[in-house]
Amino acid sequence: MTVRGRVSRLFGPWVVSALGVALLGVPLYDMYEDAYVPPQKSLHSTVVENSVLILLALCIAAAGVWLARQPWSDDRKRSVVRWTVAGAAAVGLVFGWILGVQYFAQHDLKPVIIAMDAVVVGSLATFGVGVYHSREQQRREELAESEQRYRSLIEDVLDSQEVAQLIVGDDGRVVWANAAIEEYFGLDRDAVVGRDRLDLLGERADLFTVPGDGDFGRLLRDAYDEDEVCEFEFRMDPGVRGDAAGDAVADGGVDLADAPSDAKWFEHWSKPIETGLYAGGRVERYVDITDQKRRERELERRESMLRELYDVISAKDREFDWKVRELLEIGERLLDTEVSAFATVDGDDFRFEVVRAGGDVDEDAVLPLAETHCAETVASDGAMRFDAPAKLSEHDGGDIESYLGAPVTVSGELYGTVCFIAPGERRDFENWELTMVDLMASWLGYELERRQREQQREAELREQRSVYTSVVEAVTEYAIFTLDEDGRVTSWNEGARRLKGYDEEEVLGEHLSTFYPPEYREQGRAETLLGTAAENGHAEDEGWRVRKDGSRFWANVDLTARYDDDGDLVGYTKITRDMTERREREQALTEQREQLEFMNRILRHNLLNGLNVVNARADILGGHVDDDYEEHLDTVTQRVDDMADLIETMRSFVETVVEGDERELEAVGLRDVLASEVEKTRTGYDDVDVSFDEPPDVAVLADDLLGEVFENVLTNAVVHNDADVAEIDVSVDVDPETVRVHVGDNGPGIPDDEKREVVEKGVKGLQSPGSGFGLYLVKELLEAYGGDVDIADNDPRGTVVTVTLRRADEEPTRESEDGSAAGGSPDADADADPDGDGDPDAAGESTAGSAPESGAESA
Questions:
Q1: Kind and range of the H or E element at 788?
Q2: pLDDT for position 160
Q3: Beta strand residue intervals within 331-423, DSSP E
Q4: pLDDT of residue 382
Q5: For 236-257, what is the mean pLDDT?
Q6: Phi, psi at residue 349, to the nearest 5°?
Q7: Which secondary-structure segment (H or E) carries 270?
Q8: Is it the case that residue 517 has pLDDT exceeding 50?
Q9: Which of 188, 165, 382, 381 has the alpha carbon at shortest distance from 282?
Q10: What is the pLDDT of residues 751-801, one digit of tens each?
Q11: Per-residue pLDDT tens over the stretch 180-227
Q12: How far is CA 818 from CA 666, 673, 674, 676, 821, in A?
């Protein structure tokens, strides 16, 4: 602690008391001297003389005790002590100076002078005190005036606000209230000030209603007890004021919709006061929210009516006239009118379709359009509002009524009007009300247009049903009938009667599973088919079905789901075809293919192997036969080669017939295949001149038998040629999608009536001794490839065979190892056993791939 601090602590209130006690010693000493030091004076006179000083000294001592007991700060107390000590010291110095001068300089003490000096010092001191008091008084007056102005300003501002306010002191009493308290609650603001807030609350708590389960008194008491911010809304019904408390009825919490329309609504807000003059108290504020509540109530009313409007216009099971009446009734409540009408306009005539709430006009009445309010509406583009002489209603509003209406248009053409009429002078219809009438008119137009479309669609549907029924009834090859959403029969055509054996009256209402055999019904196949169609819109099936007489037939079934405009399932349409014969044909074809495959195996593994053995043995005999028998051996070898070629042709034919549409096609290089077959023709026959310009390397859709096609066409061009030298011309035309190969010769030609027959099964061209299968094989292979063969006359003589193939999208994928495409005359199978000893490795040299040298037609 600093020295100044220690000194400051010494100047406590006891210093003042000590000063008083010290000053008490002066009059006591004077009394002692007067009583015991000669010349002695009377005790009475000395007591009277010193009584004032004694009293003043005692007052100073008592002032020190009083100062110590004040709840002032230490600094304030020390300030008083310093002023007291400084004043005493100053007066002591003044009188010490006077006494010192008289005693030491004049050697005489002058009591009168000393007394007068005391008077002067006292006068000066009292002057200073007077000046200080005067200034303090002026300051207090100015402060009071400033406070008054501030208070007046605050009160004027608060009184001018539309917010009632109370200030409650820390003792719970009202210390201030503004003018709105009296305006809102009928309470005298002057009488309220000074009253206990809870007493005032007890008198008024039952006059207010808090929405829900709230209680005004409990909410406010809890806020005071818990010393927290409190907010809630409450209602004061008409007549419930401070001067009419007896008329108030608290109903325990009523919602906004149940409150009287002229009830007053307030928002209470209060909070503790933490600082300032009223710290520990509370401020309460009451805001009039009646207009806000009325707007909320109006919005709730409008929202409720809009929901009613939506329910009316979305009701699917109600008639249009009912909807119109309900629409007008809701509009009257929403717009607060008494008369409403919906009418149509037909030229100059105005027909009332629906009229509500009385009036002078009946429904179906027809008036001249010019005599109605709606004449102006008809000429407008939207809703209108105006006052006009009364025409449609009888009311207490005199001869004037307020009109609000809008035109109704259908498909862009005027149809009529919808209007609402209120009695009396104009009520200011708001924009939202105009919008609502416009929306009502728009809905009426939409609904009328929708009804017209529905009627038109129903007429079209009736016509379509009539046509459909006629067509369906005329169909006898197929069973066509309909089912409901549960799969029960709802219609039955003649084809269904013929196919299934049931008459219509016998089968209506029966389930689809009626036509299924028992094993199918156990599997639930009818239900599965219905479920698939319902999910995907369509389902197909093949299987056995049962007729009325119990016989079975193989059926192809097509089941299509039917939906309404809303996308809901309403039933199914079912088409059933009797595929029994087709199935039997397919089974027969399957058996034939199996037989052909078996024959193919016999040809390849038995007959061809046997020929290979004969050919091998003939080769062995080649060096051991006399010249006289050499010609016979050559004949044997040639015939074996011819038979081997015939077997290979039969193999290709069988594969073509067996595989049919199941053949897997791929991209095959045309140039190499065609060049290989041309070269074999040149080397395989004498007296043949083949001209051939190699085509571009294009790929066609084919397989490993493509070489057989060109081999047979070229062979027929040679063996059926009657010229000394067979001239063969091979050319190729390439198009974006196809390739055409032309093979022309100079032979005798083919008569026109035989051009198509020459490629049919079993026909031999030009009475050739050949097999007759060559060109038929060409036709079958090309059909499998998606191509074609055509025969035409050559110029000047001969025949032109044109082979058309489809182009492949990708590069060629099949070529033979020697550069020729797969599909030329193949060598003997690797599994051939020419020796007949069961050892494939001992096979002799096969001649099956050699070109024919006789005039026989190539296979």
A1: strand 788-793
A2: 67
A3: 339-346, 349-356, 366-368, 384-389, 400-410, 413-423
A4: 78
A5: 46
A6: -100, 145
A7: strand 264-272
A8: yes
A9: 165
A10: 888 887 777 654 444 344 344 456 777 888 888 888 999 999 998 899 999
A11: 888 888 788 888 888 887 777 666 666 788 887 677 778 878 888 888
A12: 20, 11, 14, 10, 8
3-state helix, strand, coil in the chain (%, to 5): 50, 20, 30
Distance CA 694, CA 706 (A): 17
| pTM of the predicted structure, to 2 decimals | 0.41
Three-state secondary structure string covering 444-467: HHHHHHHHHHHHHHHHHHHHHHHH
Q: Which amino acid is at 11?
A: F
Strand-pairing partners, residue 267, are: 233, 287
Q: CB within 8 A of 213, min separation 6: which ones?
A: 252, 253
E strands, 48-139, in order: none
The partner residues of 168 in beta bridges, in order of sequence, read 174, 282
Average pLDDT in the chain: 78
480 — phi, psi (to 5°)? -120, 120
Which strand (E) or helix (H) includes residue 801? strand 799-806
Q: How confident is the model at residue 102, as a pLDDT? A: 76
How would you classify the pairing of strands 282-288 and 400-410?
A: unpaired
3-class DSSP state for residue 778?
A: helix
- Identify the bridge partners of residue 734 per DSSP, sorted by sequence position: 739
Q: Which helix (H) or strand (E) holds 5?
A: helix 3-10
710-720 pLDDT, tens per residue? 988 998 889 88
CA-wise closest residue to 820 among 644, 624, 665, 679: 679
Q: Which amino acid is residue 99, in one-letter code?
A: L
| Comparison of pLDDT for 855 and 262, the residue scoring more | 262
Show Cβ contacts of residue 92 under 8 Å, excluding neighbours closer than 6 positions. Answer: none
Task: State how far the Cα of 155 lies from the Cα of 160, in Å rounded to an integer.
Answer: 8
**Could you tell me which residues are beta bridge partners of residue 340?**
356, 420
Q: Both ends of the chain: CA-CA distance in Å?
A: 137
Q: Greater confidence, 279 or 206? A: 279
The 3-state secondary structure of 575-623, one letter per residue: EEEECHHHHHHHHHHHHHHHHHHHHHHHHHHHHHHHHHHHHHHHHHHCC
Residues 590, 817: contact at Cβ < 8 Å?
Answer: no
